[in-house]
Amino acid sequence: MNLYKLHANPEELDLHDEAHEKVPHFFWDKYWDKPAELKKREATIAKSAEYSYKYAKYVLNRPFPEGEAAIAKDANYSYEYAKYVIDGPFPAGEPAIAKDAQCSHQYAYSILKGPFSAGEAAIAKDAFYSYWYAKDVLKKPFPAGEAAIAKDTRHAYTYAYHVLKKPFPAGEAAIAEDAKLSYMYSEYVLKGPFPEGEAAIAKDAHYSYMYAKYALKGPFPAGEPAIAKDAEYSRKYKTDILKEK
Protein backbone atom coordinates (compact mmCIF):
# COMPACT_ATOMS: atom_id res chain seq x y z
CA MET A 1 0.00 0.00 0.00
CA ASN A 2 1.32 3.45 -0.91
CA LEU A 3 0.77 5.45 2.28
CA TYR A 4 2.18 8.56 0.70
CA LYS A 5 -0.79 8.74 -1.72
CA LEU A 6 -3.32 8.20 1.07
CA HIS A 7 -1.96 10.87 3.35
CA ALA A 8 -3.32 14.42 3.00
CA ASN A 9 0.19 15.83 3.38
CA PRO A 10 2.53 13.02 2.35
CA GLU A 11 5.60 15.24 2.61
CA GLU A 12 5.09 15.23 6.37
CA LEU A 13 5.53 11.46 6.63
CA ASP A 14 8.82 10.03 7.83
CA LEU A 15 11.32 9.23 5.09
CA HIS A 16 9.14 10.89 2.44
CA ASP A 17 12.04 12.60 0.69
CA GLU A 18 14.30 9.55 0.97
CA ALA A 19 11.62 7.24 -0.44
CA HIS A 20 10.96 9.49 -3.40
CA GLU A 21 14.62 9.36 -4.34
CA LYS A 22 15.42 5.73 -3.57
CA VAL A 23 12.27 3.72 -4.36
CA PRO A 24 11.58 3.20 -8.11
CA HIS A 25 7.82 3.24 -7.57
CA PHE A 26 8.11 6.81 -6.34
CA PHE A 27 10.86 8.33 -8.45
CA TRP A 28 9.90 6.79 -11.80
CA ASP A 29 7.15 9.30 -12.59
CA LYS A 30 9.46 12.14 -11.69
CA TYR A 31 12.44 11.04 -13.78
CA TRP A 32 11.06 8.73 -16.50
CA ASP A 33 12.01 11.26 -19.19
CA LYS A 34 15.34 12.20 -17.61
CA PRO A 35 17.79 9.40 -18.52
CA ALA A 36 20.69 11.03 -16.68
CA GLU A 37 18.75 11.04 -13.41
CA LEU A 38 17.64 7.43 -13.89
CA LYS A 39 21.18 6.36 -14.65
CA LYS A 40 22.22 7.60 -11.19
CA ARG A 41 19.61 5.23 -9.75
CA GLU A 42 20.38 2.14 -11.83
CA ALA A 43 21.44 0.10 -8.80
CA THR A 44 18.03 0.68 -7.23
CA ILE A 45 16.14 0.11 -10.48
CA ALA A 46 18.00 -3.18 -10.92
CA LYS A 47 16.33 -4.59 -7.82
CA SER A 48 12.85 -4.31 -9.38
CA ALA A 49 11.59 -6.57 -12.17
CA GLU A 50 8.99 -4.04 -13.27
CA TYR A 51 11.27 -1.02 -13.41
CA SER A 52 14.23 -2.90 -14.83
CA TYR A 53 12.00 -3.93 -17.71
CA LYS A 54 10.60 -0.41 -18.16
CA TYR A 55 14.07 1.12 -17.97
CA ALA A 56 15.38 -1.26 -20.63
CA LYS A 57 12.40 -0.85 -22.96
CA TYR A 58 11.46 2.79 -22.63
CA VAL A 59 14.69 4.51 -21.64
CA LEU A 60 17.70 2.49 -22.78
CA ASN A 61 16.03 0.84 -25.76
CA ARG A 62 18.38 -2.06 -25.20
CA PRO A 63 19.00 -4.82 -22.64
CA PHE A 64 19.72 -3.86 -19.04
CA PRO A 65 21.97 -6.69 -17.77
CA GLU A 66 22.10 -5.32 -14.24
CA GLY A 67 18.33 -5.79 -13.88
CA GLU A 68 18.05 -9.21 -15.45
CA ALA A 69 18.32 -11.09 -12.16
CA ALA A 70 15.23 -9.27 -10.89
CA ILE A 71 13.38 -9.60 -14.18
CA ALA A 72 14.12 -13.32 -14.28
CA LYS A 73 12.08 -13.88 -11.12
CA ASP A 74 8.87 -12.64 -12.76
CA ALA A 75 7.15 -14.69 -15.49
CA ASN A 76 5.39 -11.81 -17.21
CA TYR A 77 8.33 -9.42 -17.25
CA SER A 78 10.66 -12.21 -18.35
CA TYR A 79 8.44 -12.89 -21.34
CA GLU A 80 8.03 -9.20 -22.19
CA TYR A 81 11.77 -8.61 -21.81
CA ALA A 82 12.44 -11.46 -24.21
CA LYS A 83 9.87 -10.18 -26.71
CA TYR A 84 10.23 -6.42 -26.57
CA VAL A 85 13.81 -5.88 -25.44
CA ILE A 86 15.99 -8.85 -26.37
CA ASP A 87 13.85 -9.97 -29.28
CA GLY A 88 14.89 -13.54 -28.57
CA PRO A 89 15.16 -16.17 -25.85
CA PHE A 90 15.82 -15.11 -22.25
CA PRO A 91 17.16 -18.31 -20.62
CA ALA A 92 17.50 -16.74 -17.18
CA GLY A 93 13.77 -16.10 -17.07
CA GLU A 94 12.63 -19.46 -18.35
CA PRO A 95 12.20 -21.10 -14.90
CA ALA A 96 9.74 -18.34 -13.93
CA ILE A 97 8.02 -18.37 -17.31
CA ALA A 98 7.63 -22.15 -17.08
CA LYS A 99 5.38 -21.81 -14.04
CA ASP A 100 2.77 -19.77 -15.92
CA ALA A 101 0.56 -21.30 -18.64
CA GLN A 102 -0.07 -18.08 -20.55
CA CYS A 103 3.54 -16.91 -20.50
CA SER A 104 4.77 -20.39 -21.42
CA HIS A 105 2.49 -20.52 -24.44
CA GLN A 106 3.41 -17.00 -25.56
CA TYR A 107 7.12 -17.67 -25.05
CA ALA A 108 6.93 -20.86 -27.12
CA TYR A 109 4.83 -19.25 -29.86
CA SER A 110 6.41 -15.80 -30.13
CA ILE A 111 9.98 -16.28 -28.94
CA LEU A 112 11.08 -19.89 -29.41
CA LYS A 113 8.72 -20.44 -32.32
CA GLY A 114 8.64 -24.05 -31.22
CA PRO A 115 8.09 -26.27 -28.16
CA PHE A 116 8.91 -25.05 -24.67
CA SER A 117 9.15 -28.32 -22.78
CA ALA A 118 9.84 -26.67 -19.43
CA GLY A 119 6.46 -24.92 -19.57
CA GLU A 120 4.35 -27.84 -20.71
CA ALA A 121 3.37 -28.92 -17.19
CA ALA A 122 1.82 -25.49 -16.57
CA ILE A 123 0.24 -25.32 -20.02
CA ALA A 124 -1.29 -28.78 -19.58
CA LYS A 125 -3.42 -27.56 -16.67
CA ASP A 126 -5.23 -25.02 -18.84
CA ALA A 127 -7.64 -26.04 -21.62
CA PHE A 128 -7.31 -22.81 -23.58
CA TYR A 129 -3.51 -22.78 -23.70
CA SER A 130 -3.27 -26.54 -24.17
CA TYR A 131 -5.40 -26.26 -27.29
CA TRP A 132 -3.48 -23.33 -28.74
CA TYR A 133 -0.12 -24.87 -27.83
CA ALA A 134 -1.12 -28.01 -29.72
CA LYS A 135 -2.53 -26.11 -32.69
CA ASP A 136 -0.05 -23.25 -33.17
CA VAL A 137 3.17 -24.47 -31.55
CA LEU A 138 3.35 -28.26 -31.74
CA LYS A 139 1.04 -28.48 -34.76
CA LYS A 140 0.12 -31.92 -33.49
CA PRO A 141 -1.69 -33.47 -30.50
CA PHE A 142 -0.63 -32.48 -26.98
CA PRO A 143 -1.49 -35.55 -24.87
CA ALA A 144 -0.42 -33.93 -21.61
CA GLY A 145 -3.11 -31.26 -22.03
CA GLU A 146 -5.95 -33.51 -23.12
CA ALA A 147 -7.34 -34.04 -19.62
CA ALA A 148 -7.89 -30.28 -19.27
CA ILE A 149 -9.13 -29.88 -22.84
CA ALA A 150 -11.63 -32.72 -22.38
CA LYS A 151 -13.42 -30.76 -19.65
CA ASP A 152 -13.95 -27.68 -21.81
CA THR A 153 -16.87 -27.80 -24.25
CA ARG A 154 -15.51 -25.47 -26.92
CA HIS A 155 -11.90 -26.57 -26.82
CA ALA A 156 -12.82 -30.25 -26.76
CA TYR A 157 -14.55 -29.68 -30.09
CA THR A 158 -11.86 -27.47 -31.63
CA TYR A 159 -9.13 -29.88 -30.51
CA ALA A 160 -10.96 -32.75 -32.23
CA TYR A 161 -11.60 -30.75 -35.39
CA HIS A 162 -8.40 -28.72 -35.80
CA VAL A 163 -5.74 -30.84 -34.08
CA LEU A 164 -6.77 -34.49 -33.95
CA LYS A 165 -8.87 -34.28 -37.09
CA LYS A 166 -10.77 -37.26 -35.72
CA PRO A 167 -13.10 -38.08 -32.79
CA PHE A 168 -12.00 -37.09 -29.28
CA PRO A 169 -13.88 -39.56 -27.03
CA ALA A 170 -12.51 -38.05 -23.82
CA GLY A 171 -14.10 -34.72 -24.68
CA GLU A 172 -17.47 -35.95 -25.87
CA ALA A 173 -19.21 -35.54 -22.51
CA ALA A 174 -18.27 -31.85 -22.49
CA ILE A 175 -19.17 -31.34 -26.16
CA ALA A 176 -22.56 -32.98 -25.54
CA GLU A 177 -23.55 -30.14 -23.24
CA ASP A 178 -23.84 -27.70 -26.14
CA ALA A 179 -26.37 -27.95 -28.99
CA LYS A 180 -24.33 -26.11 -31.61
CA LEU A 181 -21.06 -27.90 -30.88
CA SER A 182 -22.80 -31.27 -30.64
CA TYR A 183 -24.22 -30.71 -34.10
CA MET A 184 -20.86 -29.53 -35.47
CA TYR A 185 -19.09 -32.49 -33.91
CA SER A 186 -21.54 -34.87 -35.56
CA GLU A 187 -21.29 -33.14 -38.93
CA TYR A 188 -17.60 -32.26 -39.19
CA VAL A 189 -15.84 -34.78 -36.96
CA LEU A 190 -17.98 -37.91 -36.69
CA LYS A 191 -19.66 -37.33 -40.04
CA GLY A 192 -22.66 -39.12 -38.59
CA PRO A 193 -24.91 -39.26 -35.51
CA PHE A 194 -23.72 -38.14 -32.10
CA PRO A 195 -26.15 -39.80 -29.65
CA GLU A 196 -24.51 -38.26 -26.57
CA GLY A 197 -25.29 -34.76 -27.84
CA GLU A 198 -28.86 -35.35 -28.92
CA ALA A 199 -30.42 -34.19 -25.66
CA ALA A 200 -28.80 -30.77 -26.09
CA ILE A 201 -29.50 -30.61 -29.82
CA ALA A 202 -33.16 -31.48 -29.25
CA LYS A 203 -33.70 -28.26 -27.31
CA ASP A 204 -32.85 -26.11 -30.32
CA ALA A 205 -35.05 -25.95 -33.42
CA HIS A 206 -32.28 -24.88 -35.79
CA TYR A 207 -29.78 -27.54 -34.76
CA SER A 208 -32.48 -30.20 -34.51
CA TYR A 209 -33.37 -29.55 -38.13
CA MET A 210 -29.71 -29.46 -39.22
CA TYR A 211 -28.94 -32.65 -37.28
CA ALA A 212 -31.88 -34.46 -38.87
CA LYS A 213 -30.92 -33.31 -42.36
CA TYR A 214 -27.15 -33.73 -42.33
CA ALA A 215 -26.28 -36.21 -39.57
CA LEU A 216 -29.26 -38.54 -39.39
CA LYS A 217 -30.44 -37.92 -42.94
CA GLY A 218 -33.87 -38.67 -41.61
CA PRO A 219 -36.34 -37.80 -38.82
CA PHE A 220 -35.15 -36.70 -35.39
CA PRO A 221 -38.13 -37.38 -33.08
CA ALA A 222 -36.42 -35.98 -29.98
CA GLY A 223 -36.07 -32.59 -31.64
CA GLU A 224 -39.56 -32.38 -33.07
CA PRO A 225 -41.13 -30.56 -30.08
CA ALA A 226 -38.59 -27.73 -30.45
CA ILE A 227 -38.96 -27.70 -34.23
CA ALA A 228 -42.75 -27.54 -33.91
CA LYS A 229 -42.48 -24.24 -32.03
CA ASP A 230 -40.63 -22.59 -34.89
CA ALA A 231 -42.69 -21.92 -38.01
CA GLU A 232 -39.77 -21.77 -40.41
CA TYR A 233 -38.06 -24.95 -39.24
CA SER A 234 -41.37 -26.75 -38.84
CA ARG A 235 -42.07 -26.09 -42.51
CA LYS A 236 -38.56 -27.09 -43.58
CA TYR A 237 -38.63 -30.25 -41.45
CA LYS A 238 -41.92 -31.38 -42.96
CA THR A 239 -40.73 -30.68 -46.50
CA ASP A 240 -37.06 -31.74 -46.34
CA ILE A 241 -37.10 -34.48 -43.72
CA LEU A 242 -40.59 -35.94 -43.57
CA LYS A 243 -41.07 -35.33 -47.30
CA GLU A 244 -44.57 -34.00 -46.76
CA LYS A 245 -46.13 -31.81 -49.43
Write a brief structural summary.
With 245 residues, the chain is mostly helical. The chain has a domain at 150-245.
Helix-and-strand structural type = mainly alpha
Helix content range of the residues, please?
55-70%
**Rg, Cα atoms, Å:** 28 Å
- What's the total number of strands? 0
Task: Describe the overall structure.
The chain is mainly α. It has a domain at 150-245. It contains 20 helices and no strands. It has helices at 3-6, 16-22, 24-31, 35-40, 42-45, 49-60, 68-71, 75-86, 94-97, 101-112, 120-123, 127-138, 146-149, 153-164, 172-175, 179-190, 198-201, 205-216, 224-228, 231-241. Helix 6 (49-60) runs parallel beside helix 8 and helix 12 packs parallel to helix 14 (153-164).
